[in-house]
Amino acid sequence: MRISEQALFCHSESPPAAKNLIAPYVDLFGPRWLNLPQETLKHRLNEIPKNKRLLVVCNSGVRSYETLRQLETAGLCNAVNLQGGIAALKKSGALDLKDSEEPAKD
């Protein structure tokens, strides 16, 4: 899976609920991974870079869709929702963390 270096991941679940779920992705994407829980988003909009594309994610895609709607209402429209969430990526095999150190092939 190839993802633009300009893209940021915006995870919309609260840290306690997502601790085990997100840890491998935080390690993989490092500073490109933002944890902005939906319930705190309206107070943290200033943390979202305006010049980056956001990929809003959660486990199933529901919470991230709701977060996307909040971002659009706030005027931050450079964002997309990962429909189906991280669960869909895992199920499809599109993101295999075991192979994350290998460079992407064109």
What characteristic shape results from the CA principal axes?
Answer: globular
- The CATH homologous superfamily is termed Rhodanese-like domain
The structure class reads alpha/beta
Q: What is the alpha-carbon Rg in Å?
A: 13 Å
Would you identify the regions where 5 or more consecutive residues have pLDDT less than 50?
Answer: 99-106
Question: Roughly how many Å apart are the termini?
Answer: 10 Å
Q: Total domains, how many?
A: 1
- What is the topology, as strand order, of the major beta sheet? 2-1-3-4
What is the CATH class name?
Answer: Alpha Beta
Strand content: 15-25%
Q: Examine the secondary-structure arrangement and name the CATH architecture.
A: 3-Layer(aba) Sandwich
SSE succession: EHEEHEH
Helix content: 25-40%
Q: Quickly count the helices.
A: 3
Sheet of most strands? 4 strands, parallel
User: Could you give the count of β-strands?
Assistant: 4
User: Mean of the pLDDT scores?
Assistant: 78
CATH topology: Oxidized Rhodanese, domain 1
Structure description:
With 106 residues, the chain is of the alpha/beta class. It has one domain (7-95): Oxidized Rhodanese, domain 1 (3-Layer(aba) Sandwich). 33% of the residues lie in helices and 15% in strands. It has a 4-stranded parallel sheet, sandwiched between helices.
